[in-house]
Structures are given as structure tokens and as C-alpha cells.
């Protein structure tokens, strides 16, 4: 039997039709679709056991209490710790990207020394021998070694300050912060202990400058509290008012926004105090009569002249404060740094007039935890030592350190007058950076000894500034270091032993165990993420109102050569001085804040018109100390006569995600001594703006 | 497309009077959904932001200029515009809970769905995902990384629902009536302001049940009739008015 043409065609067509009734072609098409996307260079996700571990993440200045999701032991997600009152499950945008920052391209992979050809990897032995020799040469010589730390909440400060003191120097500093100025101001008022603010029980909150939902205090706790006081669709349980130069993120959700120039915040608060005194309120302090007399200069009309706040608005606010059941005033910097002591004092005076100190919903005062490391600086001393002032002394030749140790801080980028400060640091012969990332300061250092990432290290957190209770928490490492990093406090304790200095401890774990005991907490609890918190308050009798300081510091000093006030914006998604924008956070920056490599400054239409500026115009901001370039975004959130500009751009180190984007606003921030206190202030920086 | 109803209706309620636009939800979304970082994230035509926070204002000059922030995930519409236009059924609304699926291996990258979605909630992968060296070790186990050439979007962290159902089966709990906190999206848990609430809007035991019935609740572009499963809440009338487009000649005084 032959196969004729007709039979062949029938067979072929029958075969094709037949296969269509089987799943084969459909399965093949489906497989082809899957395999066409299944390329080896597309990253595969890890499968395996999922676990959650509590930890502390210190990418934001206050620190977040976090719960880290791990897969087969590797961190994959940082969330807020639900049971921790500091986070209540929420997390800040900086810490949210924490797991991925373990593998940031900017991570320092291991110890390095600077050579003619750049940085060269070295062994830990060589690194420690070099450092030990340098420190040994300056041991016992007054003022030859200095250290600065960016850890505002950790017991590392005790280890480092004790170490520096044992070497014969008193030059241990913290990077500038809101808490530092508040501590200093509280000391000026004759107060002892630490100040916090009971947002949870307050029913009327006036934020004078303090950007509480972004850069002031523990922002996650602040926002969680705000959210809980405003149940969806129901009447608000608390009223929030923001007073400051920009309708910023905090002001956006407040019930009322009162435009107040940054240099008039103290006058504004004193205006409120004057209204309250007029209404019969008083404070039981020896200098109240002087204070009352001084308030004569801050009547509603006079405050209107100084700050532009209408007399009727001031009077209305004072009435609302007086009639609230639990009013609270929080005064601070609109960008988390650089405010003078007077603003805090004026805010505290209003709380005192309202009788809201150590009362529910008021300002709380509690004892500092006692230091446990022998020779450590007290909290009071730490608030008084300013690193910016110290570098000014170095510049003038009044201090001549030979070694500067830098822990988790980036002064070459983040101090006011950054360019000048960075140059001063070049005068110091040997700078050692204990940084997790290759930041601008590490790049200037002679030696880099990488510190582990927050999820890789033993750490603790004691009462972030602004929290209403004395609180303590410990964090155990979630993962072993993925880079060749060693914990700095342990290194320092080891160096101390090698140099024959007795700090009383040989490991940082022993220090933290002792601290836990001194605090009165249980190691088993705090190291598992359970916050220890004490509601015990401290007596506040014997205060003074620093009348002389207020009288001098409250009057703005405006140099006509610089017609615009500068309002820096500190936003955690952009980063902090010690953390350039995390790769995963870049998308959160709007194209009206950063476009390509150009950052934007914000002015309102009135200011734009007065200065001949239009949307997108390229401009230069110039202060008495420095300049930076940007483009203009016309935004009606900024008060006339003010230019708002972002901090956190203009990186010269880090990685391809951040380097070269925008300009560093810290170069423009100008230091000036606060009249009456001599505290270095830069929140009142003034600038001129010119098209380029 | 005909409206689809299921016994469970996963819904999100976002309180615009609390959102400060901090970006924590966006960062958590990027992390949880394994979106690779881009060097220039300022080119918003190329970024992949399943959750995106927009800034809105009332159009007034200073000092009456008010602002609000609007977090925008996929609306998981009841009558999605994207589903009927997909030529390869790579996106569908056919599962309990009402989450609009996106099946990457089926997607041919034609982007009809992107054109159809009025919320701009869909994104096209112009590039293969490239993570900095080592960062792939931190990838979330809940979402596969997508190659270039496919469209992607928010899935209400769908895998988390799968895990919650596994837990329910293990613990003998009805998968159709689980406690609200067992299944939460990454943006919801991350939010430091408690702005976002997530749950079954058909389940009276879930907080969102009451919230979507609030007189302040509204949905975006409601007049298009897509029946989104994301609700917004604001006591501010101007914010609610921005929830839809009104013609100059319309005398609308209220939204929704």
C-alpha cells in the first residue's frame, strides 16, 4: 500500500488538528513564555525559614526599635517593633531600607589606610598597631586626642569619653543635635535631669519650630501618638498647631499653621508667655518679677512687629492654650539642629506658666541614667561640649589635636559651614574614621576601621530626646557582619587595655550588662526588644527663667546684605548627615526636589517675583559663610522672605546612587554666637539668592 | 468589565489628614516587592513605584496654601479597566479577595493595561532588575524579581495573604474569617503615622468595615465607575474635591 499525495495531506492536516486538541502546544507556549523570562541574570529570591528578630536601627538620629524579618538568617525587611512603645509597629523611612544597606555599595569592606595612591586595604592587626602607636604617642598629653560621635543615644559615649579622658584629654564631643541644645538650655534654667514631652496625654500641642513628625525627637513615636489621637472619621482628641517658617510635613497635618520666621520663634513664644501672664498666670521662681517685666517687650503688638504674627492670632493661641485641659508646648529647631537655647527656654517658660511640668500631657523631667564606665563624661557635660566650637578653636590654633577619632559621624559633610569645617579637619594630622560607610569624613581619614552595620552589632538606646519617659533598650546582632567590620566600642576597650588604661570593662557586652543593671532593667527583657521605661519624674524646684538670656536672644538680628531667611528642610527619606539617601529611598524624592543632578530650593511666588526668579531657574544661594547652587521650585508652602532648601544632598563620597546629586546646604549654614548664652546657632542663617 | 464581588473584599483605607508624605510606605514597598534601585530615580517615567505618594494642594497662595499627601497603591478595582484590555489574560480579577492579579510570565509588555488604568498604578519594566552586589541576599521571599519587558503593579502584598491562610489552616482558623492583623500589607505596617488601614471591608470585625462607611470616605475618580477597593478619608473638603475631576461648569460642592 503506497502513500499517495491525498493520504499524506490528510495525515499531516489530521496530525496538526489532532495536536490542537491535546494540551501539548498550549503547554509549550506557556513554557516558552515562562522560560523566555527565566534568565540567569534575574535575581532569585531566597526561600527558607522566616523569622523575626527585634533590634535597634540607628539610621535616624533618635533610633528606631525595629523587628527584622530574616530568611534563613539573612535580614530581608526592617519593620517597626509592634510591642515597643517607641515604634508601635511603625518605622522611619531611613531605617525601613536598613536591611538592604547591609550591602550598600558605599560600605567599607574592611580596614583601610590612606596612601599616596588612595585607600589601601590592610589587616586589622596592622590597623590596630598603627592606631595604638599613634595613641601611645599622645597618651597623657593634654588635648592631643579628640573624638566625635554621632551616636546620640548609646552607651558608646561613655566608653569613648572615658577612653579619651584616660588618654589625658577632655575633648569628647557629640555631633550637634536638638537634645544637646535642650540639655544646655535646661542647665541654664538651673534644671537637672532630662526633659521629655508627654504627647500621649496632651490635648493641645503647640509646636514652635519643632518639626515633630520629621526631624524633632522620636518621629515614629510622635506620629503614632498623633495618629492615635485622631481616630478616622471621629472627632479629634487633640489639637495640633505648628508655628514656623515653612508649612512643612508636620504643619501639613496640623489643625493650624502659624507662619513665624525662624529667627523669631523665641519672640513668638515669649509673646504667648506675655499673654498668659497678662491673664494672671505665674511661675513660682525667684526671678519671675524680672521675667514679667521683660515680657513688656513682647506684647502682642511688639511681637507682631518682630515676627509678623498678627496680635489677634497670638492672643487667640494663648487663650486656646490656657483653656486646654492638658496643653503642651514643644519649642525647637525646624530642622533638628542649630537652634539656640533661648527658644527652648521660652517654650519651657510657657509650659511652666500653664502649670504643665510633670503633669499628664506636659513637659516631663526625669533623672538621667548614671554612667557606668569609669571616667565617662556626664550627660550634662556632653550637652555643653560643642564640636563645631572645638573645630573653630582648632582653626584659630587654640587647640591642636594630633589624633581625631570619628565614630558614626560625618562632620566633614554635616557640620554648619561644612566646607570650612572640612578644611579645619585637614589640619589634624591623623584622623581615624569608625564608619560603616565610606562617607565624606572617612574619605578624609588616614585610617578607616569599619564599624558593623546596626543590625550586625550589639547596641543600646537610652531615652531618645523628646520621649516622655526614661527608657532603655538593648539590641543583639541580627546577623554576623557581612563586611570585615569590628565593633568600635570593643576595639576601644581592647586598645585601652593595650595602652594600660583602666576603664573597668573588657567587653562592650559587659558594659551594657552593667548599664542594664544600673538602669534597673532586666537584661533578658531589654535584650529581647522589651523597652524598659520609667515614669518616675524629678523635682523641678529652684528653676530660673534665664530672663537676661531671653531678653538678648529673642530679638532677631537681620543683616540687610542677606535679605532672605534660610529654612533648611531635614527629611529622613533624603537621609541624614551620617547617611546618604538609601538606594531604596531614592524614589521617594519628588522631581520637584531633585531632577537629574539638580536639587531644588523652594520659594513662594511673592519671593520669586521680588527676586526675578521663575520655576526651574538655576540659582546660587550665598550666606556669609558659603554658597550652594540649586534650581527654583515655586511653592506656596514657604513664607515670603524665606527660602526653603533641603539638607542631605551634594554628596562627594558614598556611591553612584547619591554622589554628585544636588549641593550640600550645610556649606551655607552660618554659625553665630547666641547673645546671652554664647551657644553656637545656625538656624537663623540668612542668604541672598541670585540667578546663574 | 462587569463588577465582580467576592465574599472577602480586601480594602485599604488611607487617612489623608494624617499622612505627612515621609515616604516610609514607599521604601517598605520597594523592599518587600524587590524593586531594584535605579541610579536616577528622578526620571519618574522610568521608576517603579507600586506605592507612590503624591503631593496635592488647595491652589491658594501663602499663607492659605494647604497641602496634603496622597499615597497611591493599585486600586484593585471592582470593575478594573486594565483586565479587559489585556490580550493575553496576564491580569485578571478572578480570585477571592478581589485583588487584581498580574502574571509576569504571561505578560507580553504591550502596555494596554497601563493606558487603560486611570490611576497610573501600573509600571513597565524598561530594564532588568540589577541589585548592587550582595543586595540580592536581602530580597524579600514574597515577590519574584521581574525581568524587563513586563508590566508590574501593587498586589496588596498578595503572598502575605497566602502565608496568613497557611497559618489559619495550621491553627484551625477559618481562612475566610481571619483576624485582621494576620494579613497586612508592607506599606500598612511600615507607616509611622497609622495612616493606612487594611482589611476585609466585608468583615464587620475588621476596622476598615466601618471606615469605608464613614461620611468622610471617598474613592479616586469614583465617577468612572471602576469601583476601587482603596478608600481615602479626609475631613478637608478641598481634599475630597480633588478625588475626582469636575468641569468648570459643574456646580459640584461635594465629592462623593
Helix and strand content put the structural class of chain B at alpha+beta
Strand residue content of chain B = 5-15%
Q: How much helix is in the residues of chain B?
A: 10-25%
Number of helices of chain B: 7
Strand-helix topology:
The complex is a heterodimer of chains A (692) and B (256).
Chain A (H helix, E strand, L loop, with lengths): L4 H16 L3 H12 L14 E8 L6 E8 L2 E7 L17 H4 L10 E4 L2 E4 L2 H15 L6 E5 L6 H11 L5 E3 L3 H11 L5 E4 L6 E5 L10 H10 L10 E6 L4 H5 L2 E4 L5 H14 L9 H7 L5 H8 L3 H13 L3 E5 L9 H13 L9 E4 L12 H6 L2 H9 L7 E5 L3 H4 L3 H8 L4 E5 L5 H5 L2 E2 L10 E4 L7 E6 L12 H11 L9 H12 L3 H4 L5 E3 L12 H7 L10 E6 L24 E2 L2 E6 L1 H6 L7 E5 L4 E8 L7 E5 L25 E2 L6 E2 L4 E6 L1
Parallel strand pairs in A: 6-7, 6-14, 9-10, 9-12, 10-11, 14-15, 15-16, 20-25, 22-24
Antiparallel strand pairs in A: 1-2, 2-3, 4-5, 4-16, 8-13, 17-18, 18-19, 20-28, 21-22, 23-24, 23-28, 26-27
Chain B lengths: L9 E6 L8 H9 L19 E6 L9 E6 L9 H4 L26 H5 L5 E3 L26 E3 L4 H14 L14 H5 L5 E5 L6 H5 L5 E2 L11 E4 L3 H5 L15
Parallel strand pairs in B: 1-8
Antiparallel strand pairs in B: 1-6, 2-3, 4-5, 7-8
Describe this structure in words.
The complex is a heterodimer of chains A (692) and B (256). Chain A is built from 23 helices and 28 strands. A 7-stranded mixed β-sheet of chain A has the order 5-4-16-15-14-6-7. Chain A has a 7-stranded mixed β-sheet with strand order 21-22-24-23-28-20-25. The radius of gyration of chain A is 28 Å and the shape is globular. With 692 residues, chain A is an alpha/beta fold. With 256 residues, chain B is of the alpha+beta class. Chain B has one domain (10-241): Alpha-Beta Plaits (2-Layer Sandwich), CATH 3.30.70. In chain B, the strands form 3 sheets. In chain B, strands 6-1-8-7 form a 4-stranded mixed β-sheet. Chain B has a two-stranded antiparallel sheet with strand order 2-3. In chain B, strands 4-5 form a two-stranded antiparallel sheet. The radius of gyration of chain B is 18 Å and the shape is globular. The mean pLDDT of chain B is 94. Chains A and B meet through α2, β3, α7, α8 and β21 of A and α1, β2, β3 and α5 of B.
